[in-house]
Amino acid sequence: MAFRSRHRTVFVYGFAKNERDNIDPDELEYWQGISTAFLRMDDAKLTLMIDQLELKEVNCGDEGKIP
Description:
This protein is mainly alpha-helical. The protein contains two helices and two strands; from the N terminus they run ββαα. A two-stranded antiparallel ribbon has the order 1-2. A hairpin with a 3-residue loop joins β1 (2-4) and β2 (8-10). The longest helix has 16 residues, at 25-40.
C-alpha cells in the first residue's frame, strides 16, 4: 500500500499470507517505485486513469469507515 496522510491512499499489491511469506527485495523496490509514481500523480491524470478503467476509486466516506 502507498500512503500520504490527508492526500490519498493507493493499494498497489496484496497477497494471501498462506500463499507466500513475503516479497523479495527486488519486488519491494519495484512496488515502492509504483507507489511513489501514484503518490506524485496529479488529480487530472488519476481521473483519466479511473475514467479509462485502469484504476478503481474506492471512497471510504467522511467518517473513514470502509463501506
